[in-house]
Design goal:
alpha/beta, 15 strands, about 325 residues, 9 helices
Length: about 325
C-alpha cells in the first residue's frame, strides 16, 4: 500500500496514538500564560545543575522519563527514542539519553524538531517496526544565547523583532496499539526554504515562508482546507512571523486567521517583555505537550494541525554572512 499522498505528504494506514506527554519549564515560562498546565516548573534556570547545558540535559531526561511513567509503562517498553535540541552536536540530548538506555536516533531540525520526531516516530510505528516511540526536544534560553548570540552577562539590547528562547522540554510517548487517544493521521515533510534574510534576530520573518509552503502543500496533497481543523498551530513564528504567514496565505486565496495560532505567542504574557514572543525547540513542545494534547484528550479539540518551524542557520554560517535556510514540517493529530 502506497502511504505517500501527493508530493510531500504521508497518510498513515495504522495511525499511531499519543499515549502520554510531559513538560518541564523554567521560571519565566512558569510565570506565563500556560503556567497551570506544565508538569514541573524549575525555581531557577540552573535546575540545581552545574551549568545551563547540564540543566537542559536534565530537563529532557525528566520530560521523557515522566511521559513514560504517566503512560503506566517503563523505559523497557520503549523501542526507540527520537530527540534533539539546539546545541552543537545535540549535546544536551546526547548527555541525557546516555542514562535512559534505549535505542536512540538524534534529530536536528532546529525548532521544527518536535514535529520531525513525531513524523519519524509515526513512520516507525505505522511500518510495524515497534510498539512504542518516545519523541522529545529541549531548549534553554541561556545556553542558546551563549552559543548563538551573546553571553547573557553582557546585557546586550535586543531589537523588537527578536524572540525569547524557551527554557523547557517536552516529550510524547507514541504507541502503535488501538485506543481512544489522539491519532497521528497525516504528515507533510517540508522543504528547505531560503528567502535571503540574514538577520539572526529576525527568525519569525525568515521561517514564515517555509511554514506557508508546507501548509499550502499539505492542503494540496490531502485535499483538506484550513477549516477542516479546529486549530492550526505553528511552532515559533512569534508575532511578526504569525502576521506574515496569515498575509502570505491570504495572497494564495486562503484565510487561516479564524483557526490559526502560533505557539510562540501562547507562552509569555505581554508584560514579560519577550519582545516578538517565544522561540526554541521547546516553544512548540511545551505548548503541544502541556496544553494541546490534553485539550484533545478532554474532547475540547478534535482536529489539530501542528506545524513545526525551524531556522537552520549556525554560528558559522552567520559569521560567513550566509542567508538563513528554514524548514517546516506538518503533523495532523485527530481524535
Amino acid at each position: 500500500m502506497n502511504k505517500k499522498h501527493g508530493k510531500q505528504s504521508i497518510v498513515f494506514a495504522s495511525p499511531p496514538q499519543v499515549a502520554a506527554a510531559a513538560t518541564i519549564v523554567g521560571p519565566m515560562e512558569g510565570e506565563g500564560l500556560l503556567a497551570a498546565y506544565y508538569d514541573k516548573i524549575l525555581e531557577d534556570n540552573s535546575g540545581d545543575q552545574d551549568s545551563w547545558e547540564k540543566c537542559e540535559s536534565y530537563m529532557i531526561e525528566w520530560a521523557m522519563s515522566t511521559a513514560v511513567k504517566k503512560s503506566g509503562l517503563t523505559l523497557e517498553d520503549v523501542d526507540y527514542i527520537l530527540a534533539g535540541d539546539l546545541l552543537n552536536q545535540l549535546m544536551a540530548t546526547h548527555f541525557a539519553i546516555r542514562s535512559l538506555g534505549r535505542p536512540f536516533l538524534g534529530l536536528y531540525g532546529a525548532c521544527s524538531t518536535m514535529a520531525e520526531s513525531l513524523i519519524v516516530g509515526a513512520i516507525l510505528l505505522d511500518g510495524g517496526f515497534g510498539g512504542h516511540v518516545l519523541a522529545g526536544v529541549s531548549s534553554h534560553h541561556d545556553a542558546a544565547e551563549r552559543q548563538y548570540r551573546f553571553p547573557t552577562e553582557l546585557g546586550v539590547q535586543r531589537p523588537p523583532v527578536t524572540q525569547w528562547t524557551v527554557t523547557g522540554a517536552g516529550a510524547v510517548l507514541l504507541k502503535a496499539m488501538a485506543g481512544n487517544d489522539p491519532r497521528v493521521t497525516t504528515a507533510t515533510i517540508g522543504k528547505v526554504v531560503d528567502v535571503g534574510l540574514k538577520d539572526p534576530n529576525a527568525m519569525g520573518p525568515a521561517m514564515a515562508p517555509a511554514a506557508a509552503e508546507t501548509l499550502w502543500q499539505h492542503i494540496q496533497d490531502t485535499g483538506r482546507q484550513p477549516a477542516y481543523y479546529d486549530l492550526i498551530v505553528t511552532g515559533d513564528l512569534g508575532v511578526v512571523g504569525k502576521t506574515l504567514l496569515i498575509q502570505v496565505m491570504q495572497e494564495k486565496g486562503l484565510d487561516i486567521s479564524a483557526n490559526y495560532q502560533d505557539c510562540g505567542c501562547m507562552i509569555y504574557r505581554e508584560e514579560q517583555d519577550s519582545h516578538a514572543g517565544a522561540s526554541g525547540c521547546a516553544s512548540s513542545a511545551v505548548v503541544l505537550c502541556s496544553h494541546l494534547i490534553p485539550q484533545m484528550k478532554a474532547g475540547k479539540l478534535n482536529k489539530l494541525l501542528f506545524i513545526g518551524t525551524g531556522s537552520l542557520h549556525s554560528t558559522t554560517s552567520y559569521q560567513q554572512k550566509e542567508s538563513i535556510p528554514c524548514i517546516a514540517h506538518a503533523v495532523s493529530l485527530e481524535m
